[in-house]
Inverse folding.
């Protein structure tokens, strides 16, 4: 049993570690997104560094790898909720700390959204509504990401407590909340300082 869970985590990690944003930036925008803006490989920095087309490929790819990690884990381990939850959270860890990028990556929001889409799609819809509105109002993706992880955690705890979702799903919700807020520390500092980047701002190479 424990070997299965280790393998589910490993499977999730390698799905998540696939460097979608880096490849899209190189092939479409002809830049190394790690050397631009925030240095992350997620959709927001790819948009700023490599353009809209590269960002679209990145976002779709990041969502897909999170969803596929959960789907494949369920198929292999016969729907085991623990295996699915481990594959989900480790896909985010793989995205954030990719072995293919010297353990660098993004902040995990889109990969987590894909994993949650496969785990509990209704929870994703409920958790994303307010963050999407706030992102549209503020034009700051970091606010949407932070809100989404917090609302997702709250919904996950309530639903698991009520028995509406397996308690094993908290293996995804709790660590993702912590990972998201940890990964967004630079954004939190800029939000406090009042100089957070907005969607559409161009990325610059660090001086």
């Amino acid at each position: 049993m424990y070997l299965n869970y280790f393998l589910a985590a490993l499977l999730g990690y390698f799905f998540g570690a696939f460097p979608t944003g880096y490849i899209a930036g190189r092939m479409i925008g002809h830049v190394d997104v790690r050397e631009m803006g925030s240095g992350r490989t997620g959709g927001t920095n790819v948009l700023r560094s490599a353009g809209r087309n590269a960002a679209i490929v990145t976002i779709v790819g990041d969502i897909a790898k999170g969803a596929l990690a959960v789907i494949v884990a369920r198929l292999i381990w016969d729907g085991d909720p623990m295996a699915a939850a481990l594959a989900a959270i480790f896909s985010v860890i793989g995205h954030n700390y990719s072995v293919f990028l010297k353990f660098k990556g993004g902040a995990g929001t889109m990969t987590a959204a894909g994993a949650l889409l496969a785990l509990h799609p209704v929870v994703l819809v409920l958790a994303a509504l307010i963050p999407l509105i706030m992102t549209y109002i503020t034009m700051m993706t970091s606010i949407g990401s932070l809100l989404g992880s917090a609302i997702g955690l709250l919904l996950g705890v309530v639903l698991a407590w009520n028995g509406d979702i397996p308690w094993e799903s908290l293996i995804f919700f709790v660590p993702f909340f912590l990972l998201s807020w940890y990964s967004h520390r630079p954004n939190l500092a800029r939000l406090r300082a009042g100089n957070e980047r907005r969607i559409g701002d161009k990325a610059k190479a660090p001086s």
In short: Residues 2-193 form one domain. DSSP finds ten helices and no strands in the chain. The two ends are 50 Å apart (CA to CA).
